[in-house]
Specification:
The chain is an alpha+beta fold. 56% of the residues lie in helices and 16% in strands. Helix 2 runs antiparallel to helix 5, helix 2 runs parallel beside helix 6 and helix 3 packs antiparallel against helix 4. The protein is elongated.
Length: 236
């Protein structure tokens, strides 16, 4: 088995095809998870990033092994690390100066590029293990990350008011709940519903079950919905 893997490390047309196909597969697995979460950088983007990184490494190896240029194969591949930053930046959006979206996707793109470089270099074991780790982080650890949302000392709740004319009435009813809270931000509605007003409040005291507080706010007249929120969040 090990001898077969060592054979695949040689530079030939067969190994080039195998490496590009492996890049398609591993990049596609990471991209599929992002696609399922409806991220801007999804299946196709991750496949292209992984394949391009693999091809970049292969070009460096080709220049040294076949054309016999006196160059370091890693010099060309090193540009992938800096170049992927531009793509990653495009996946990150900052909304209302506080909500950050796309950091996980941008990090995934960077990991996908590293996976592609490993494949291009013939480091198949590292590429596969790294892909498994990335998928574990993006799937299993996502649930853990969300569970921590309800254990923060500072708890935030986001809700939307139906119509700006009802803001004062909702705030009056909110004060009637006798909660120690601070108005954190009034913002455009995340739902995109015309006429709605988005509100983020901060509960100053630790809350055992923030869902119950959120449900109480939801029952206030002219509140469209209410959900737990974070002061600053990466919308995975």
């Amino acid at each position: 088995m090990l001898q077969f893997v060592d054979t695949l490390r040689e530079f030939s047309l067969l190994t080039v095809v195998i490496r590009l196909l492996l890049a398609l597969l591993l990049g596609g697995l990471v991209g599929l998870e992002r696609e399922r979460n409806r991220q801007a950088a999804g299946l196709r983007t991750h496949i292209l990033v992984c394949t391009a990184a693999t091809m970049t490494m292969l070009i460096g190896i080709f220049a040294k092994e076949v054309i016999d240029l006196t160059t370091d194969p890693l010099r060309i591949a090193a540009q992938v690390v800096s170049g992927i930053g531009f793509i990653g930046a495009g996946a990150i959006m900052v909304r209302s100066g506080r909500h950050i979206k796309g950091v996980t996707t941008a990090s995934g793109l960077w990991c996908t590029a590293a996976i592609g470089l490993a494949i291009g270099a013939g480091f198949y074991e590292g590429a596969i293990v790294c892909s498994v780790i990335v998928l574990i982080v993006m799937t299993l650890l996502k649930k853990l990350d969300r569970s921590l949302l309800f254990k923060d000392t500072d708890s935030f709740i986001y809700f939307e008011i139906i119509g700006s004319e009802n803001v004062n009435q909702v705030f009056d009813d909110l004060r009637g709940l006798s909660l120690d809270l601070t108005l954190n931000e009034i913002m455009p509605p995340k739902s995109g519903t015309n006429g709605n007003v988005g509100v983020v409040i901060k509960l100053n005291n630790p809350v055992n079950d923030i869902r119950k507080v959120s449900n109480a706010i939801k029952k206030i007249d002219n509140v469209a919905f209410s959900i737990p929120d974070r002061g600053t969040s990466d919308t995975i």
